[in-house]
Structures are given as structure tokens and as C-alpha cells.
UniProtKB/TrEMBL annotation:
Swiss-Prot/TrEMBL keywords: Membrane, Transmembrane, Transmembrane helix
Ranges for domain EamA: 7-131, 141-280
Protein species of origin: Halarcobacter anaerophilus
Membrane-spanning parts: 7-27, 33-51, 63-82, 88-106, 118-134, 140-160, 167-187, 207-226, 238-257, 263-282
Subcellular location: Membrane
Gene Ontology CC terms, in alphabetical order: membrane
UniProt key word Ribosomal protein: no
Superkingdom, natural source: Bacteria
Pfam families assigned to the protein according to its UniProt record, in alphabetical order: EamA
Name of the protein described by the UniProt record: EamA domain-containing protein
Length: 292
């Protein structure tokens, strides 16, 4: 990978990592479902009027929009709202890599090698450590919600694989139009019409910045650049760069939100990141060992 593209990939993971902290800042004044709904509404409008729909079946666009907008980011925002720290949320969400392996085995009939099984066991051990964090930065409900978000993210990976669309930017814009209405309905069902009537009263500069950061750097710019890199280089060269997301997520929560980095969190992070490395490189390492 060229140095410029390498630095660009690191920059995207930095954006995605600190995004969790900015989500939490926005949740201080805006309902989690409403915050996510506005994010995806503005991801779609007005660009949808100028960007041609990708040439793939609508079932993939609709299902991706619902899972990516509602199942992933709506639920993750709710998890952060219910007490899980931004840094831990960014880390737990990476478990989607292992859920994707399991789903790919069931749906796409892909085999699971021994290195991926080992990686999953190590990741589960890291998750057990997170459950035992007692500094108030992890709540059981928040953790469960982020795990649901990780599972939803895994399903979106399968959808992208089956849709086989090369125009990811158009795909994201058109899929985003199916996210806001379900999110707004969930906001109404959980908190009533006050989330809408008090919206402008609660809207402040921090909330506006949170919304804009989630729309443009995180979603539109981030996913556009990332998928361009995936088309330019082998996936094995690009995907492992995502390991930097939880690192920046934890550092972002420490510097932006002043959240404590305790010993158990650090050890749990090491286990999960180590598991992700094995998941990404384990098969190649085993092949080299066998050849020698």
C-alpha cells in the first residue's frame, strides 16, 4: 500500500474511533433514535436527487438501510445512551468480525478454519473481562445493545457481499433513505412526541457538531474512502487496518470525555485486538508454519 493511502486509511480509522465519543456528546441533548434518524436522513438528502441508484435489487438496498441505520447505529447509540462508554462500545462492536465469520459459514457456506475458532474463543474471554468492569462505564443493558449492533453489522457485511455492488457511495446514500422513518417511529414509541416538540429547544452547538460529524466525515467520506481502498488494494491489506478503530475509540473517550482507562479495560482490549489479528492473519501464519 502506498504511503499516502496508508495514512488515509489510518485517518479514516481515527474518524471512526472518535465518532463514538461524538455520538455520546450528541446524546446529552438528543434522543438516541432521533439522533440516528437525523444522521441518515441527511446522509440521503439532498444527495439522493443527484446520485443514480445502484444497479442492484431493491431488497438489498432496503435491508441494508434498515440494518445499518436502525439495527447497527440506532441500537449502538441507544447502548451508549444506556451507559456503556464510547471507548468500550467501539471495542465491543469489533466483535462483528466474528459474528460475520459465523454468518458467512451458515449463509454463504464458507468454512471456518481453526485460527478463526481460536480467535473467537480469545475474543469471548476479552468480552467476559469487559462484563466484569465495575467503574460504571459498562452497563449490562448497554453491552447487550452494542452486541446487537455488532450482530446487525455482521448481517450488513453479508448483504454487501451478496449485493456485490461496486458503487458503494451510491449504495449508502440510497440505503440511508430507509433508515430515518423507523428510527423516528422508535423515538416516538420510547419517549413520545416530546422528542420532536423539544428538538429545537434541546439543539445546541455540540449536538449540531455531533450530527454533522456523523454524517459527513464518518459516513459519507469515511465509507467512500474505505471502499475505494478496498477496490484499489487486496482486502487482506485494508481490512486489518480496522483494528485501529477501537484503539482510537478508547483514546477518544479518554481525551474527549475524560473516561477512565482502567487495567481490566486495557487487558480486555488487548485480548480482543489480539483475537482480531488472529482472525485476520491466523490462516496465513498457519500456512507458513506448515510450509516450513
Amino acid at each position: 500500500m502506498k504511503q499516502y493511502d496508508f495514512l488515509l486509511a489510518i485517518f479514516i480509522t481515527f474518524i471512526w474511533g472518535i465518532n463514538f465519543s461524538f455520538i455520546k456528546l450528541g446524546l446529552n441533548s438528543i434522543d438516541p433514535f432521533l439522533l440516528s434518524g437525523i444522521r441518515f436522513l441527511l446522509c440521503s438528502f439532498p444527495l439522493i436527487f443527484f446520485i443514480k441508484r445502484p444497479n442492484i435489487p431493491m431488497k438489498y438496498i432496503i435491508s441494508y438501510g434498515l440494518l445499518f441505520g436502525v439495527g447497527l447505529w440506532g441500537i449502538v447509540s441507544l447502548g451508549i445512551y444506556f451507559g456503556i462508554s464510547a471507548g468500550i462500545a467501539s471495542l465491543v462492536l469489533q466483535l462483528s468480525a466474528f459474528f460475520t465469520v459465523i454468518l458467512a459459514s451458515i449463509i454463504l457456506k464458507e468454512s471456518i478454519d481453526i485460527s478463526k475458532k481460536l480467535a473467537f474463543i480469545i475474543a469471548i474471554f476479552g468480552l467476559c473481562l469487559i462484563i466484569n468492569v465495575t467503574d460504571g462505564s459498562v452497563t449490562f443493558l448497554g453491552l447487550i445493545l452494542v452486541l446487537v449492533g455488532a450482530l446487525s453489522m455482521s448481517f450488513t457485511n453479508i448483504i454487501v457481499k451478496k449485493a456485490n455492488s461496486k458503487d458503494i457511495f451510491s449504495f449508502i446514500i440510497w440505503a440511508s433513505i430507509f433508515s430515518p422513518i423507523p428510527l423516528f417511529i422508535l423515538a416516538y414509541l420510547t419517549h413520545g412526541d416530546t422528542v420532536f416538540t423539544n428538538f429545537f429547544y434541546n439543539l445546541n452547538k455540540t449536538a449540531i457538531f455531533s450530527i454533522l460529524f456523523q454524517i459527513y466525515p464518518t459516513t459519507l467520506f469515511g465509507y467512500w474512502i474505505w471502499n475505494n481502498l478496498l477496490h484499489k488494494y487486496p482486502a487482506s491489506s485494508v481490512a486489518p487496518m480496522g483494528l485501529m478503530v477501537p484503539i482510537f475509540g478508547l483514546l477518544g473517550s479518554y481525551f474527549i470525555l475524560d473516561e477512565e482507562l482502567g487495567f481490566i479495560k486495557i487487558v480486555a482490549s488487548i485480548f480482543i485486538i489480539f483475537a482480531l489479528i488472529i482472525n485476520s492473519y491466523g490462516e496465513k501464519i498457519l500456512q507458513k508454519i506448515c510450509r516450513t
